[in-house]
Design a protein that fits this description.
By secondary structure, the chain is α/β, with parallel strands linked by helices. It binds 2-acetamido-2-deoxy-beta-D-glucopyranose (7 copies).
Amino acid sequence: MAADKMFWRLLCLVVGLCIVWRLCEPVAPAIDRHGVSSHNLVEHDLAFNRLDGGFVRKLLQDEDEEHFDERLLRELVDKINRSSLNPMPETAEERCFLTRGSWCTQYLTQAAEPRLLPTYFDKPCPRNCSGVGVCNHEYGLCFCPAGYGGEDCSQPRKRPCHHMGTGKRDAGWHNLTAWSHTRCAGVCDDDVAMCYCPPGTKYGRIEAPPGAALGTPPLQQGRPLFMCTPGTDEAGRKVEWGGTPYQDIFGPEGWCNAEKPAFKCPCRLDGLGGSTCSEIREQVCVNQCSGHGQCNQGFCKCYEGWYGMDCGLRRAGKVDEEGDEMLAKPWISDVMTHVVATEDPPMTPERRRPYIYVYDIKPDFSTDIMQYRIEGSHCVYRSFEKANKSVWVGYNAYSVEPVLHELFLTSEHRTLNPEEADYFYVPVSVGCLFDVYGWNEIPRWPRNILGTRSHGAAMLQREAMRWLNATFPWFARRGGRDHIWLNPHDEGACYVWKDIWPGVMLSHWGRTDFPHASNTAYSQDNYSLPLHHPLHPGDWLEHTSKAHPCFDPEKDLVIPAFKQPSHYRKSPYMGMVGPVTRTIFAFFQGDLRMEPGRDPACRYSRCIRQRMYNLSKDQLWKEKYDIWYGDRKDMDSNFDYSEMLSRSTFCFVLPGDGWSPRLEDSVLHGCIPVIIMDQVQVAFENIMDMDQFSVRIGEGELDRIVEILQAISPEQIQTMQDNINKVWHRFRYLGIRMATLEVRQRLQQYRENHDEDAPKNPGSEHMVSRQDDAFDTIIQWLHYRMPFVHKATKQ
Ligand SMILES: *[C@@H]1O[C@H](CO)[C@@H](O)[C@H](O)[C@H]1NC(C)=O
Ligand SMILES: *[C@@H]1O[C@H](CO)[C@@H](O)[C@H](O)[C@H]1NC(C)=O
Ligand SMILES: *[C@@H]1O[C@H](CO)[C@@H](O)[C@H](O)[C@H]1NC(C)=O
Ligand SMILES: *[C@@H]1O[C@H](CO)[C@@H](O)[C@H](O)[C@H]1NC(C)=O
Ligand SMILES: *[C@@H]1O[C@H](CO)[C@@H](O)[C@H](O)[C@H]1NC(C)=O
Ligand SMILES: *[C@@H]1O[C@H](CO)[C@@H](O)[C@H](O)[C@H]1NC(C)=O
Ligand SMILES: *[C@@H]1O[C@H](CO)[C@@H](O)[C@H](O)[C@H]1NC(C)=O
């Protein structure tokens, strides 16, 4: 690496001086995406930054707040240079290590094209969307928040609570209907089916006065009454669907009346916190409405002149940055990722294919589902805590859905011009639907039945596709082959509607056998249950799972699950533990579901985890071989998952209900994956030389696991470990702002702790660079697929 390039890169790592982080990343000379040295670019951007007015905001992305001092910087750089990470791979050959075929090199060696100015649109919307919705000026369509509909958002589009009568109150507490989460003892916000303390109580909801403008918020939101239902009425008569003593809710010392109530109902709605649920917090929206709108439970209400699901698009003719919240709401800058496609003038002057157009999707299939959440932690990967501090959501298995949406929106490969698009990303909230489905009558797809969640998800995608196909020419143009659909759920794309199947299916579940049937242990997800409905002729199975396999290695991709950096904080790649000693021979910790009666047919994990557990006991794995296997209670009390993975030579990759992100866990910790699931591919298996850094054992060979692993020589083990060091970064996503900030903080902290003696663990050079990360890998593969997708030729 050229010395001056190294200098600027190191500078960026620690000081965060670069305005656009990507500029800091090393690029091979032949494929330098900017055509000028990084050095020049940094100065160029600083110059921009000195401009007053409009441009400053767009340049805020990477902490240009830092004032710097030449001497201090020099000292820092010297220090880093002594205790630094290893150099990054640069040449195409190095970067494409262990990739199969030519997808990686083809991408890296393509010629760059100049980035054009963004395209601006100015189509008006009917009646300005009544001041309630957001006008998409490209489509000329109003996108309305939950509760509002019609072409101008003036029509009610309600989501009543279960068994709601007049006045948004329950139709009779003593009528026992089917149990529902939205049975409401207070007053219902029937835009989204959320229950609050009723009017007349001190902390009850007070609606906006009659005649107030459409969309006016309530005068008092009220304390939530979600999952908090009385066991009796005032007179003591039993209410079948409740359990809480009446006085605890409605009494003078109760939740709805007392300033400091003795009994507290749950406070789980996004945007509320504190012991009485009265602390107002920022809510979560895609890319936080780009600072150009008000976030309402996932719906961005954009300020005048801005539009898009993330308010990231500027209406033609709008020149000022009015409505910019970066300064008014400083907490937003920690979670907002810079959008390259809207740079004007382009600060990233060149671009490479593929060009990807990100649809704005009708709320029915996207933001409505977000707004129907009753748990703040559903459907998102982050939230705002006390004082609006950003935190990761503890666990959301499908978090790749919001992550990929933001990554596509902010990507250098995004185009605002569908004419030139090589691909179309369809951001429907299908993973989110799984959290929301079945709690209330709406949304269900179709709306009048309660089928399996799989049926609902397939119908939602089908309806979204029909809307796209009826509204734009793009779906029909290439037979839908260039449309990218994400299927984050447990059994991936096994049951998608056959009309969308020609598209690119991204999922975590690479099951290849056909015909196939659901293997879920959760009956609500059984996609093999027959279902007839007037909206489709015959059995839905004929349109879905019986029509295609779960995964087609030629046109689809198994992508890694999203893991926040703290998940692998003890990994040697995070620099945190120094040189690793892997004293545990093999490791697995996870759900076993072996309690009597829990899973009588032993379906979960195809019974692999359970059979292995019994083997581990029979063969004394821990005592004789240092193999740690089991669920949480089989581990030590001070057990730390990340540390265990870092200390293990082999880690088992076993299915869960469908996919389980164990390949990611192993690789991110430098542990050699031992994959046991026949005819199921793991992440990137069709595009990487998986054999060079993993072991596969057949389901029929479980008895011989120890024997097989022991037969692997120390040299083979060393080779596989060396290989993982060079590819692990392809299995994690770094592009979103929060992840980037976290890894930088961790690196800095590590340096402070170790000063000059910080060990250079092999592989840790990738720690803070998003070069060739999981998202880049997806993009590189999409590039390679372009000719097949465009011309419908076979591979
Ligand atoms: C880092 O150290 C190397 C070797 O000591 C030296 O050649 C190089 O110039 C240094 N780089 C910077 C940016 O100081
Ligand atoms: C359109 O509605 C927005 C609110 O969504 C409002 O700020 C704006 O002034 C309205 N414009 C016109 C021309 O009525
Ligand atoms: C609820 O029960 C009352 C009294 O039995 C009855 O009059 C009313 O029709 C019921 N309402 C509903 C919505 O079932
Ligand atoms: C957090 O954000 C909300 C919504 O923007 C705001 O009303 C509130 O004042 C903020 N809280 C703090 C402590 O800044
Ligand atoms: C898309 O629309 C075209 C034109 O209306 C129609 O011929 C085609 O069948 C539609 N495709 C699907 C999958 O519905
Ligand atoms: C799913 O439903 C089908 C049809 O009823 C049944 O045969 C199958 O055993 C079920 N599968 C699971 C995993 O429960
Ligand atoms: C595991 O062993 C227990 C106890 O002997 C037995 O009940 C269970 O069926 C075994 N499970 C499997 C999957 O072998």
